[in-house]
Fold these 2 entries.
Entry 1:
Amino acid sequence: MTNAFLFYTTENYIKCLFFEKCVMAKKSKYEKNNTITIILVILIVIAIFLSYRNSYASKEFKHVSDSITGFKNNSVIIIEEPNIFNLEIKSNGKIYEKNKDYNISFDGRFVIKKTSNSSIPNSKFVISYDVPEDKELAALVNKEKITFTELSSISAQVDPYSTIPTAVLLKQIINEKLVTQEIANSKISVPESEINATIQELTKNLPQDINLKDLLASQNITMKEFREEIENKIAFNMFLERKIPELKVNDTEIIEFYNQNKESLTQPEQVRASHILICFQGKERCETNLTKEGAQEIVKNILEQIKKGADFRQLALQYSTDPSVVVNGGDLGYFSKGQMVKEFEEVAFTMQPGQVSMPIETIFGYHIIYVTDKKEAFLPELDQIKSSIKNLLFTQKIRDNREKVDTYLNNLTEKAEIKISELLN
């Protein structure tokens, strides 16, 4: 199974490895990265990857090679195929360069057009390409398949605001698969104690009313599968530490970090709240055509339903325009001061658990806030956050040794057999 943890980040927990930006770091200003949200999203991605586990190409490509006498129809060649790989234009032993000698576009078929300074001759040349029998095939990594469905599913979870180009996302997935394949061929043994400690740490930081087993069951994930994913994540770090010794994190570093950063590790006063967002025209990240007046009518209707005892989560799922509602049901988790937009924060911290706010307008639209809990400031014990600190230090070492990590990944790429659809190239 692929290592879903690579795609997520949180202040004290899981850190991104390959991505310079991660979806959870790109969430809107009124959202908070919290353990329950992270676990929920991880579970969804685990479910995605479970459906593609051991997905290897069993079918071959059909190779097509045509001799063509010059470009026709305004210097355009049409390939009536929904998906092709390894496009090549060659003449007298010379292979012409895409984007320099020709461009490719797709409108249900491939359209190849000469550039203005193209050196492709008007005389005879050969165009060749491979047509996959599996039209869904996006890429092959040492014969392990990545389909367009898989890619779009990952993209929807990792990058709901579409801030990461598809080509960049695919490169990170390929890198991750290459390392995972290397791990499968190595003899990495993860201590049970480390797996248990990581799960225990995540469990301890869940809200009191959330049970890990119930959370897993809600996403049709078994505890065995979840443990495997934790094991994969730890194995991934262990493997890179073997390949790049500078990445290794020892207990002395963890203790030193804890003692030197008690102030920043102290959990400030926090509020846990859910919200329903109704955005309207002119607001940030709003993709509806709703007017401000229309939004006010919807908010009024929601508040009337709340007064009659309607379930807040169900209302959020029904009405909220916040993209993350499908993952968290409107629950923003715990957040401290300075993590939300000012108007939202000022109201949330004056409320008591069980209270529902009147509509608050921010740069994102109208919010209805439901406060569910409050926490006083406290400093966690080292054992509670040890694996989190280790992950953080590991990530910092990845950043500090980026050149060595990139060299290792580039070496894997050079040795690998990688094919990418021309739809993505």
Entry 2:
Amino acid sequence: MHRHSHMPGVRTALALAVSAFACTPAARAAPGDALAPSFTIDTVGYFETRTTLVHDAAGNFLVVYQVDGRPLPIIKGQLFSAAGVARGAPFTVVVNGTLPTAAMNAAGDFVISWMMPQGASDHLYTQRYSAAGAAIGAPIDLNTRSNVYDDAVAMDGSGDFALTWSQEWQIELPDGLPYGGLSLGASSVRAQRYSHDGSALGVRMLVDLSLTNPTPISGNFNPPQVAVAADAAGDLVFAWTDPFLPGRQAVRAHRYNANGTAAGLVLRVSPLAQSTVQYPSVAMDGDGDFAVGWTVPHSNGTVLHPSSSGYDLYTQRFTRAGKASGSAVRVSQDVVIEAPALAMDSAGNFAFAWIGTPSFCCVPRSLRLQAYGSTGTALGGNVALSADTDSGLGPLGLTTSAGNLVLVWDNNGTLQGQLLAGP
């Protein structure tokens, strides 16, 4: 079921990762500087919901994207070398799937996951692939049954992976009873670990359980949005929006050991002053240090552009022990109008990409980038990578490895990519 598309109110995901490739000028270039001309990935038309990028240790990368197939959406993938040269043609993952997400290990093997309607509910599927892009076995049906709202996947260096998703339940109170006709709701964040051979590791994990309406009041339900990251050894960190009360959401995170046991307590990531948060993202370095990103409406937690309807982008770094490194930092200096992406390399350098504008109305949108060093120091300011005069920019992705970046975006029905200098 399609629940996410363009902001505001729905999700368009950007993917961020690091791409390693031999390019001598990269060491002297500033973050965001183009290292090569842009290249075309697909020209089939409207790209919606998500564009995900993942990479291997050598910098080869995979782009996974959803096409508005009309009448049915199509999820496709395309492999590239570290230099941005296509490896074969785009391949079809599934027809009638939505919300694709992907992860890749150091050797280039990868998994792609998606949601697909099955009767009155959504099922979550995942498919393993070799580094050459050949499907391994049949798709795994997680049999999630009840409504699935969001999903994410992460993979460690050896190819073991973890899939996380959020679900919701709603109960309509019968007419004639107290509060009849109103709704009660609950939501959960769950996860399942898998071996590199596709066999399940342990039982399903309950990462979080929350009442979306703890008292019988009417209102919109806000199931969690989820993200997950893994380090080389398989340690995990989950991040999600906690919808405990309408209008009082928080971004939370929880670390897990590689064997699936919880490490420490649940962390509150977003400051208390921010009560309406969305679009969490998380990335982890090789040692388990991690950073979380999220968005906040301009009227909540900031005075920047108070009359606009866009978002501000924030980040918070943590050590591998779950201790906050400094305070939350506002990343964007403009109005964010596409859900941002975050990626971190093995050394802890990281970057965000998003589509933004100085003013929500009447000003061209642009692709923007902000890079950070491993200590959280901003490397230069927000970089405007390109402008678009007719608001045709759509879902984009960013990936990083060995200090360089790959940016992918939809520009009026053409999915484009470009190699950039990274942090």
